[in-house]
Amino acid sequence: MRIATNTTYQNSIFSMQNTTASISEAMVKMSYGKAILKPSDDPIGSVRVMGLEQDNSAASQYIDNISNLSDYYSRAESALTGMTDSMLRITELVTAAGNGAATPENREAYASELRSLQDSLVDMANSKDANGAYLFAGNQTGTQPISQDAAGNYVYGGDSGTRQVPISDSAEMDANFSGDELFFNGGADIFNGLNDYIAVLEDPTLGPGDAAFDGAHDQMKQLLGDSRDDINAAVTTMGGNQNSLTMMESYHEDMVLYNTKVIGETEDLDYAAAMTDYSTNLTVLQATQQTYVKIANLSLFNEI
């Protein structure tokens, strides 16, 4: 009798401890709203959640990269479009200056406006991003790309470097365009070309029909056409890159939403089932406690 009573007594204590632990665990899960609080709760589910969270972390980094790239392309495209707009006005002035009816005073006025437009071209070529980094300096983003040397010639201060930024597990995209590629092709550039042409316009002894004037005039028209072509090609590339970035961003965002949904389905708590388990364990605990009290009160005197 004593052995059976002692065994039942110990079993009751063990049962109460286990049931109390189950109730405590259920309360913690309900407080967090999670079915998986540690890997042992669901080893397979835990591995799945860990993998999906890693995928989301990578996707979030790609989305950040895409956002930064998109900002760069928007700013760069705006600056280059502004330059082509200025070049259209420059083309109009060059055409007017080559008209035989233009007087020396007319050409001087054209030269004055061309200098203002030249300054605007330089300013746009020296555009910066929100952090103060130059857009067209290659990898030397802290160096002003276009400046004048002591002789008044325009020179490029950046480098030809191009940075690659990952936008997915298998794709990268150029993060910058260098100014020497955009503005200084073939040993000729629009900035110094305007210097030379303006000097011709300001010379009252030169005009249409003079070899020096006509040569400078034809060279300026050719340089304008080449410069516009180079810049328009870059703008077209940027527009295509922007489209690719938009599609890739949507892909990553959709994957994050899907992964988050699966994570929720895997680790989020089913409150209805949890409450049922909680209530069941609570009932078991109460029954066990009642049994324990009865056993604890047993003695030989109760049997006499």
**Secondary-structure arrangement, i.e. CATH architecture of the largest domain:** Up-down Bundle
The total of beta strands comes to 4
Structural class: mainly alpha
Question: Termini separation (Å)?
Answer: 13 Å
**Secondary-structure element order, as H and E?**
HHHEEEEHHHHH
Mean pLDDT: 85
Q: Could you name the CATH class of the largest domain? A: Mainly Alpha
Anisotropy-based shape: rod-shaped
Q: In which range does the helix fraction lie?
A: 55-70%
Strand order of the largest sheet: 1-2
CATH topology category name of the largest domain: f41 fragment of flagellin, N-terminal domain
Strand content: under 5%
Number of helical runs? 8
Let me know the largest β-sheet.
2 strands, antiparallel
Under CATH, the homologous superfamily of the largest domain reads f41 fragment of flagellin, N-terminal domain
How large, in whole angstroms, is the Cα Rg?
Answer: 39 Å
What's the structural domain tally? 2
Describe the structure.
With 304 residues, the protein is mostly helical. It folds into two domains: 214 residues, f41 fragment of flagellin, N-terminal domain (Up-down Bundle); 34 residues. The chain is built from eight helices and four strands, in the order H-H-H-E-E-E-E-H-H-H-H-H. It has a two-stranded antiparallel ribbon with strand order 1-2. A hairpin with a 5-residue loop joins strand 3 and strand 4. Helix 1 runs antiparallel to helix 7, helix 2 packs antiparallel against helix 3 and helix 3 runs antiparallel to helix 5. The radius of gyration is 39 Å and the shape is rod-shaped. The two termini are 13 Å apart.
